[in-house]
Amino acid sequence: MTTEMSYQVTEREYEALAVLRDVITLVADEVEANLGRTSQSLEALRSTVNCEVIRAENKLFY
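User: That's the sequence. What structure does it adopt?
Assistant: Structure tokens below.
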């Protein structure tokens, strides 16, 4: 039962990371659209965030 509970927490954390990535992507897209420009800094931010989320996922699951 302990293993099952641990798995459920991990699954929730994974889902939270996926939601976080989606939210950050949507925010960056909205900022970009409202500024009316394609900014290298926004792309760099999106890339950095995606790398950090992947790193966090790897720590959770591997």
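The chain has one domain: 2-61.
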